[in-house]
Amino acid sequence: VQLVESGGGLVQPGGSLRLSCAASGFAFNMYAMKWYRQAPGKERELVATINSPGRSTSYATSVKGRFAISRDNTKNTMYLQMNSLKPEDTAVYYCNARVVGVDYWGQGTQVSVSS
Predict the structure, then answer these.
(1) Which of 9, 11, 27, 70 lies at a C-alpha separation of 20 to 30 Å from 114?
(2) Closest CA to 80 of 111, 43, 113
(3) Within 13 A of 87's CA, how many CA atoms are on the CB side?
(4) Coil, strand or helix at 109
(5) Backbone phi and psi for residue 38, each to the nearest 5 degrees, phi listed first
(6) pLDDT truncated to tens, each residue of the chain (115 aa)?
(7) Which residues contact 94 (CB under 8 A, 6 or more apart)?
(8) What is the CA angle 17-55-8, rounded to 5?
């Protein structure tokens, strides 16, 4: 199983970013996928979840209405569209897949929101 995140960067408050997570080594279309984030000095937190067909999503209260998780099962890729970014969204963002009871993580992509 391999998960590779991309799309992070430095953005001003109110800006937008789109993260991608390219998956390989497992049947991507059969598993729910998640985005987590970890800010400096804080525990890793769940940001958003999407089920295997991509029809059901859920979000942390802190990002609801600003972030949108999606997936393209034909490309084995998951996305996180982040709008109206705030300084408190600054963190390393990780994609996660739980495959046959084992959690797999990408290397993470840094998102920094600052003026």
Answers:
(1) 70
(2) 111
(3) 2
(4) strand
(5) -140, 115
(6) 999 999 999 999 999 999 999 999 999 999 999 999 999 999 999 999 999 999 999 999 999 999 999 999 999 999 999 999 999 999 999 999 999 999 999 999 999 999 9
(7) 5, 35, 36, 37, 38, 44, 105, 106, 108
(8) 15
Rounded Cα distance, 7 and 31, in Å? 22
Q: What is the C-alpha R_g of the chain? A: 13
CA–CA gap between residue 33 and residue 71 (Å, rounded): 9
Burial class (CB within 10 angstroms; exposed 0-12, middle 13-18, buried 19+) of 53: exposed
